[in-house]
Amino acid sequence: MNILYETRARVVGGRAGHATVEDGALALTLATPRALGGGEESGTNPEQLFATSFAACFLSALRFVANRRRLALTDDSAVVAAVGIGMREDGAGFGLQVALSVSLPGLEPGLAAKLVEEADQICPYSHLARAGAEIRVAIDD
């Protein structure tokens, strides 16, 4: 794959830690949700970040396919991503479940459905969720 953009995030402390990205644009306190055994600490969790990222990426894909058709989406077009975490049915650790809800005001429902289908075919988060991703793991010296 020809990489067009790459970023790096560093996390210390895991789910109850701190996250930063290399360009300094983001710094977060992480906290484990109570449902997963966390306490009263406030902070963001990986599922919230994934939901936010998936929704933003899918809306960008929708805007891309609309633009290819010379259509403009309204400023209040939106995607809501619900991300859940739980034990996989095959017992191989944890898994994620994603549900997307798309709002495309002003578009005829049939056209909106076509745009959603096209966006789903090009969105990298959709690809990741369906087919997995190339993941390389290395240990730093």
TrEMBL record:
This is Organic hydroperoxide resistance protein. It holds the Pfam family OsmC. Gene3D superfamilies: 2.20.25.10, 3.30.300.20. One of its GO terms (biological process) is response to oxidative stress. Signal peptide: none annotated. It comes from Sphingomonas pokkalii. Belongs to the OsmC/Ohr family.
